Amino acid sequence: MPIISRFNAATTAATVDPDNVLFTARLNNIRPLVNMLRSIYFQNRTTCAINSEGVVFTVEEASSTVAQAYLRTDLFAAFNFNGTIAKEQNQAQGIELADEDGDEDTVYVVLPLDILLDCLTLFYGPSGGASGGGSTAALLSGGNPMDLRGATTAHVAFNGIGTDFELMLEERGVISVCRMATFVPESSVDLDFSGSPVIQQLIIRSEWLRDAFNELDPTSETVGISMAPQAPFFRISTTGDNGSTEMTYSKDERILDSFFCSEEQENRYKLAQILRCKHALSLSDKTKIRVNQRGFLSFQFMIPTDADVSFVNFLFAPQTLSE
Questions:
Q1: Where are the alpha helices (DSSP H) in 65-185?
Q2: Residues with Cβ < 8 Å from 104, sequence gap 6 or more?
Q3: Residues pairing with 18 in the sheet
Q4: pTM to 2 decimal places
Q5: Predicted local distance difference test score (pLDDT) of residue 95
Q6: What percentage of the chain has pLDDT greater than the value 70?
Q7: What are the strands of the beta sheet with 65-72, ordered from one edge?
Q8: What is the dihedral of CA 175, 179, 185, 186, to 10 degrees?
Q9: Per-residue confidence (pLDDT) for residue 320, from 0 to 100
Q10: Using CA atoms, how far apart are residues 40 and 59, in angstroms rounded to an integer?
Q11: Please, what sign has the CA dihedral across residues 175, 146, 26, 167?
Q12: Which of 75, 166, 199, 221 has the fewest CB within 10 Å, making it most exposed?
């Protein structure tokens, strides 16, 4: 459980010297962060990667699904990452994860995602008012949209593995400080999407994809996704107790912004895993869909924020490989 306390003055994350701390940041509006984290909230732990370009939260499931929320530095009102401290800590601890992409300065830490969301929404009750109470995890699993008005400011501080991840939240003069225990990352799932050439790619307006998701037969175990150089260019299908459902899409510019298919291919994926991305889809304006030669499927959701467009990515292994 997090340690939560309330103060009348900013004495912690807001006042630390960024030159002596690994990572500090400030958000003037917690709404984008909360929405992004909610989009990948299907496990209770997330691996957080921090470097000079921003923060990436990653959630994995059953070695066949990987979801990532990207928070670039322009989403923050202030962002300070000390690469020198990061490199020293990684070298001292011999963390191989930091060198996978040739970037010694990236720091990886595992956080309790359910507790992080509870802390971020501390001032908000089920109705969205600043009343507190009620577990965010329970609210999200129950489908409560939680109307976050964005009045809460957040300061973040983290000084490396072995230290707490600290949040200082402020709203209307009330300040709360939450300190969460952190965990050392284990080896991550590598679906190696880039290891095989992309043979299919499109960008679809998300409203059309949302309609398709609403039509999927929930009794179906799998969903079929196919693209072809000729009509029907893009098809989504399910077969379940209620019969067969199929949605096809043309290359109409009102539907697709772009389309590429060098090889016709149909793959099937676990429907329950595909539906994990419904929340990210609901927030997005457009969705980029890619399939590589091995049938791995990538959804990239383009989510508008006050600063710019943010991205949430989902990667799925095809049914034949994930079994």
A1: 83-93, 113-120, 136-141
A2: 86, 87, 90, 91, 98
A3: none
A4: 0.86
A5: 59
A6: 83
A7: 107-112, 45-51, 54-61, 65-72, 309-316, 297-304, 286-292, 198-205, 256-261
A8: -120
A9: 74
A10: 7
A11: positive
A12: 221
63 vs 40: CA distance, rounded Å: 15
- On whether the CB atoms of residues 277 and 68 are closer than 8 A, the answer is no
Q: pLDDT tens digits for 51-99?
A: 999 999 999 998 899 999 999 999 999 999 999 999 998 888 775 544 4
**Angstrom distance (rounded) from CA 167 to CA 48:** 15
Sheet containing 234-240: which strands, arranged edge to edge?
Answer: 243-249, 234-240, 222-227, 265-270
The amino acid occupying position 48 is C
What's the rounded mean pLDDT across residues 163-184?
Answer: 93
Token pair of 119 as six digits = 């802390």
Distance in angstroms (rounded) separating the CA atoms of residues 80 and 87: 15
Dihedral pair phi/psi, residue 41, rounded to 5° = -85, 80
pLDDT-derived band of residue 140, with 50, 70 and 90 as boundaries?
Answer: very low
Tokens of 74: 């322009």
Q: Which residue has the higher pLDDT, 124 or 123?
A: 123
Alpha-carbon gap, residue 234 to 226, rounded angstroms: 6
